[in-house]
Amino acid sequence: MRGIVYLVATPIGNLADISKRALETLAAVDLVACEDTRHTGKLLNHFNIKKKLTSYHEHNEQARTEELTEFLKQGKSIAVVSDAGTPAISDPALRIVQRAHEIGAKVVAIPGAVAFVSALIVSGLPTDSFFFGGFLPSKKNERRRRLAEVSNVPATLLFYETPHRLSKSLIDCLEVLGNRKAAVARELTKLHEETILGTLEELTEKFSSGDIRGEIVLVIDRIEIANQKSQIANEKSLPERVAELENEGIDRKLALKRAAKEFGLPRSEAYRILQAGK
Ligand code: SAM
Question: Which ranges carry the Tetrapyrrole methylase domain (predicted)?
Answer without folding.
Answer: 5-203
